[in-house]
Structure formats: structure tokens, C-alpha cells
Amino acid sequence: MLWKIIRRTVKVIGILIGVVILFVIIYFVCSTPFGSKYKHLSGADLERYTQYLESTISEPLEFVSEKFKEYDVVLIGEMHRRRQDVELIKSLIPYLYEKNGITVFCWEHGASAFQEEVDSLVTAPVFDERKAISLQRRSFYERDFQEYLDVMKVIWEINQKIPWEKKR
User: Fold this and answer.
1) pTM of the model
2) Would you write out the chain's pLDDT as a tens digit for each of its 168 residues?
3) Residues 122/156, Cβ–Cβ less than 8 Å
4) For the purposes of burial, counting CB atoms within 10 Å of the CB of 86, is it exposed (0-12), middle (13-18) or buried (19 or more)?
5) DSSP string covering 38-89, please?
6) Which residue of 117, 125, 126, 139 could cross-link 110, Cys pair, CB 3.0 to 4.6 Å?
């Protein structure tokens, strides 16, 4: 009887170890960028790309603003937890409102389940920092940084300047 229990326990442990190994293998296979290896640039290609970048350089805010002349929606990627990226977003929001009249800002930071609460926060007469922190912590606790909180405050500040009869 004891021998049966030991055999079953070893069998269950073996199955669990196998499942863990399978998940680890699946993780590495799915996260490996197949077919996207970096290619070495020839000197001519590097020179051509460098000249293009130098001839088209503009200020970041102006660059994004100009894109709205051509497109209704502009997507901007940012590396999470990098202050400079969030600072750019914070600068873009008022700039795009003033230059382009942009009143819609979509952001992947936050859960859509809390959208009504966020809307009420950024349109309220007084910015409720405690509520903003609560929303942030319920959405993405691992990105609970002041810079992300400041984005909501920037939107609130713009809304305070917009007359009530206009779109906020």
C-alpha cells in the first residue's frame, strides 16, 4: 500500500515537472523573434539612411503635430518606465491641443473598465490626486510612477482652460 502511494506521488511529481518544462519551452519558442535578425548595413546604406534622417529632422512635438495634417490617428510607442518617453507624451498633449485642436487622447496605460472614472477625474473642477493614484494602482501597479500620474493631471489642466460649452 505504501509502495503504491510513493509510486503515485512520484508519477504526479513527474507530470508536474513535465508540464513546467513544457511551459518553459513554449515561453521561449513564443518569445523568440524568428526571422527578425538584424542585418548588417553596408557603408552606402548607412550613409543613405543617415542623410535621410539629417534632411528630415524636426522637433518631436512639431513632427507629431504635422502627422495630423495627413492622418486622423497617430500612434506613438513608448518604452515603459522611461521618464523621457512619458515627458514627451506630457509635452505633446497640450501642444497638440493648441496646434491641432486634438481633444481625444488614447493611452494603453490603464484599464478600460475604469474609463468613466478617468473621464470624471480629468473633467472634475478639482484634480483629485488620491483618486488618480487609486486608479493607477488598480490598473497597472507595476507602472505606478509620478510621471504617469502627471499625464492625467496635464489633461485635467487643459480641461480647466476649455470653456464648459466646448468639447473637453
Assistant:
1) 0.66
2) 788 888 888 888 999 999 999 988 888 777 666 655 667 788 899 899 889 888 887 889 998 999 999 999 999 887 777 889 889 999 999 999 999 999 898 887 777 888 899 999 999 999 999 999 888 888 766 667 888 889 999 999 999 998 877 777
3) yes
4) buried
5) --PPPHHHHHHHHHHHHHH---HHHHHHHHHHH-S-------TT-HHHHHHH
6) 139
